[in-house]
Specification:
By secondary structure, the protein is of the alpha+beta class. The protein contains three helices and seven strands, in the order αββαβββαββ.
């Protein structure tokens, strides 16, 4: 019987939540619990924050960036902004990079030395600063300090 169930379930189509577009959900369920969640952006190959409205949405929604990375990002996958070439390698323990480059860490504490100017331009293009009246930039505390949570689009709030 177990073999029959295994065969049955192995042929069911699997939906990879990481391939779904971000969906902020809605607030029409009586819960007024807007919270920061994370989704995997398949084009940029990274997890980004968005404001979840509290109800609905899809399964490309994670409580924290670590869960998103664990589920959707290959542990050994690392790229510099805009797909630019890495100028060297680094790690959490040794963040030494050539002048003009910055250590961008990945899983397991490994990292790439990426051109600082390209990284900054890439970040500005893919994480716009939105001038929305009444909204402030949200930050979260991570192991290395405070980090601004900037989504890919202003609609992600």
């Amino acid at each position: 019987m177990w073999i029959e169930l295994l065969i049955f379930f192995s042929f069911l189509p699997l939906i990879d939540c990481c391939q779904e577009p971000p969906n902020r959900g809605h607030s029409k369920c009586g819960k007024n619990q807007k919270v920061i969640k994370y989704y995997f952006d398949k084009k940029l190959e990274m997890c980004l924050p968005f404001l979840y409205e509290g109800c609905g949405g899809n399964s490309n929604r994670f409580d924290d960036v670590d869960m998103c990375n664990l589920r959707c990002r290959a542990a050994d996958k690392g790229i510099c902004g805009g797909g630019s070439k890495a100028l060297g390698s680094c790690s959490n323990r040794n963040k030494t990079c050539p002048k003009g480059s910055k250590c961008i860490t990945m899983a397991f504490g490994l990292g790439l030395c990426c051109d600082e100017a390209i990284q900054q331009a890439w970040r500005q293009e893919n994480h716009p600063r939105c001038n929305i009246p009444g909204h402030e930039v949200v930050t979260e505390t991570v192991w290395y300090g405070e980090q601004e949570l900037l989504g890919r689009h202003c609609g992600h709030k």
